[in-house]
User: Which sequence fits this backbone?
């Protein structure tokens, strides 16, 4: 298949491109800086250099084919840290997502895959409640909701086959973000005390190589205007994951559960069919303990834990 990927130099994007190449697909990546392309790709992918906010300027002549089959849109600025609270940046992401749908139409793509977020569901469930107290990090989650709803609507108008993949908690070798699992792993490798919530909220973590296989499966075989959860069919309380991480890493960190007040949504995972992709033939290959071990070893090798 002929595939277009935005956000290809991000953590998930790099692994997604690697999986597509492994499956024998022809891949074009849209990146803002060609210098960020891994050396191993240079003879394997076609590169279109463009800022995300300029996708509306791109035309078929900028790409190597007369048409493409699938457009995977992963580009999103400000996925972690304080940039999640940047209203201008997050609204630009919404606009860019709609531009990406229109670009996929110009390229003759039969399918458009949007990288959604589990935080969409947290925002819908929590912010709408009377008396809820959202914080500025919810700007990111509400932008994800808007991007999904608006892009889906644009796709219907443009007659583009739309799929939203709900990314939960992907982790693994190569991630450098300050997200929860990454931050907690680093603290454990340093044997620091770790302040946590009560840990009773249900969570799910999936290793990145499994996650990108799910994303590709949803893109190639998913149904129009459908949602596919990227994760495992079984969830557990967060506390169980944290305790297992400490055991795998042989950490001396003190786990201070209940030290941080919990606010926000308590997802039950009944919000989506977490087994949908397994019914389509997917089976996860990397257990949580193995994924934590691989990620921790990579952090130590790169001195990223310090």
Assistant:
């Amino acid at each position: 298949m002929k595939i277009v990927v935005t956000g290809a130099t991000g953590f998930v994007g790099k692994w997604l491109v690697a999986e597509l190449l492994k499956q024998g697909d022809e891949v074009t990546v849209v990146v803002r800086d060609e210098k960020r392309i891994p050396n191993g790709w240079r003879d394997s992918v076609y590169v279109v250099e463009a800022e995300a906010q300029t996708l509306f300027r791109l035309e078929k002549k900028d790409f190597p084919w007369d048409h493409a089959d699938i457009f995977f849109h992963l580009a999103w600025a400000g996925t972690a840290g304080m940039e999640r609270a940047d209203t201008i940046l997050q609204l630009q992401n919404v606009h860019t997502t709609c531009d990406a749908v229109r670009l996929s139409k110009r390229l003759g793509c039969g399918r458009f895959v949007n990288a959604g977020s589990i935080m969409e569901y947290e925002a819908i469930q929590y912010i709408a409640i009377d008396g809820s107290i959202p914080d500025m990090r919810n700007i990111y989650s509400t932008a994800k909701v808007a991007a999904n709803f608006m892009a889906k609507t644009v796709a219907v108008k443009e007659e583009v086959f739309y799929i939203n993949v709900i990314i939960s908690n992907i982790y693994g070798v190569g991630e450098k973000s300050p997200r929860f699992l990454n931050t907690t792993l680093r603290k454990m490798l340093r044997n620091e005390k770790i302040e946590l919530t009560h840990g009773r909220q249900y969570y799910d973590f999936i290793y990145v190589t499994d996650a990108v296989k799910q994303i590709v499966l949803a893109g190639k075989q998913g149904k129009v205007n459908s949602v596919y959860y990227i994760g495992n069919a079984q969830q557990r309380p967060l506390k169980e994951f944290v305790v297992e991480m400490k055991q795998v890493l042989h950490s001396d960190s003190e786990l201070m559960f209940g030290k941080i007040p919990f606010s926000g949504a308590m997802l039950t995972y009944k919000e989506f069919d977490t087994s949908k992709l397994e019914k389509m033939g997917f089976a996860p290959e990397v257990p949580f303990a193995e994924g934590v071990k691989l990620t921790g070893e990579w952090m130590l090798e790169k001195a990223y834990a310090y």
Q: What stands out?
A: The two ends are 42 Å apart (CA to CA).
